[in-house]
Amino acid sequence: MKLSTKIHASILILVNFLLLHYIVSSIPLRIDLTAENAYTLSDSAKNLLGKIEEPIRFDFYKTESIENIPAGDKMFLQNFGDRVERLLTQFTRASKGKIQFNKIDPKPDTPEEENAIASGVTGQQLSPIGDSIFLGLAISQGDAENAIPFFDPRKEQNGSLEYDIAKAIYDVQQLSKPTLGLISSLPLKAPPFPTMPGQPPQEDQYIVTELENSFNVEVIEPTAAELPSGLDMLAVIHPIGLSETLMYDIDQLALSGKPLFLAVDPSSLFFRTQQQQNQMAMMGQPNPNTSSDFRRFFDTWGIQYSTGEALGDPNIAYTAQSSMQPAWLVFREDQISQEFVPAADLNAVLLLEAGNIQLEPDSKLTLQPIIQTTEAAGTVNGMMLQFTQQGALLNELQSTGEKATVAGFLQGEFTTAFPNGKPAAPGAEAEAEDATEATEDEPEQLHTGNGSVFIIADTDWALDQFSIQRQNFLGMITIQPINDNLAMGANIMEFLGGSQDLIGIRSKKTASRGFDRVQAMEAEAQQQYQIKLQAIEEQISAANQEIQQLLSQSQGSGFIVAGPELSEAIQKSRENEVKLRAERRVIRRELRKDIDALKWKLVSLNVGYTPIGLALFGYLFYRMRKQRAL
User: What's the Cα-to-Cα distance from 187 to each of 453, 463, 532, rounded to whole Å?
Assistant: First the structure.
């Protein structure tokens, strides 16, 4: 073959390759090979788009030319912006003409930049000399407007981008939000003013911020005498010291069919930590806020729940830095009901020192277990949590060999917890005539009614320190969930409140997947390690006590006589310490050996399958050509 022919053939191959790449990239077809379909619109998002009645306009503001920033950051932002654009395109196509998509480049000092800022899209300045970079979305439907100021790349990792877009679409269509009453002894809502002069104002716990996206949240103090009117549903979290009249209103709300979200706790880690900080434990004064109950209602409903016992489960215990927390439980897909829609896609719910709820056999209500432990779970006395090291709790667990229910959905025909009528307000001394008039103005008491109550025997899950991380990104504080606690609370309340469109999107599994086998190996080794370690530590403690007794008996005139018994006790203690360190090394070495072997296999497979596949393809191709030649 001539040289010119080879050059022409090479040019044609290159042109064909470029044309093929352009044609394939232009085809609106994508194949999502991730196990969680992380790059495919969920069915919930498609259902939400199918309910759009009036056309919606997407104005996607994306800066095309990014200058004066490092090349790596520039490429990262451009690639991320392209992925956001493709996601918005998926929404547009799935809407079947109900969404009009406009892509706008807001160049500096142009009307497009002014329109972006006016619509709520925020430009970010990445360098002191550079222009602002825009990557946000303005959504409008008629006179209603909404905006995503700036897409956060971190949210791409946990699947939140799809939720943010769907939530913005949902919000722009809502004329009004339902009203959620919130009663809580936990500081979920920040005080309106700083507690100390000169300090910055406190922030709400993020669960409140999440709920405010879907509800008009009306905070009700536990000391209130009654519920405000106009509530669509009620959330009661860590109820302590509620008045009789307030509980009567809660009773009537539940009997009227309005949903109730209830969270109690046998051992509030938040208040127990406060107790330790205030040194109340040293004074022998228990913190009255450590445990919460709903006894009057539980007795009426037939719910069995103990404020003196918390659950531990070595199979799902939280493990970090070679330390197992038997009473901190991480509930994954196998422990969460897949039949209960708001929880079906949850895969990492962290509950801390939670309780057990059961339904009495003679109760007329039905309790659907939503979150359960494994059969290895057991109970531990609440006082042990305060004075016992986490490792020693494994020896204190009293396992029944059955799963324990930590959260459940209670339904059926409820009976009033106030059969004798509404209790009198504290200190009320009204005359009989005035009381008669007041009774006539009040609605007639409900004695029975169909209702629904979600009960969870833990409250610490709602706090930021156990659910999110706040991070600074481009000068903005962004929220990074560390588990599914927020999704659980928001999903269930939205479900109870009647809005179910966003549940499947919020709980969509992330593209980041854990190594289940490695985690199981670590948990098993940690359990074995903690039990052996605790046994040896008890032996060392006994030896040290013996030494102290010998020292106290051997004290004479200002000096200590070291006899053979004391020397033998010291030698025994040292031998136990050597044994402890030796066993610790053996266990850790065995743990790392299995995990490292598995890691080597995975790395070899990931690195080697491509060249092996190419070699196999080349060999088969060679064999086919050789057979044809023959």
Answer: 23, 9, 40
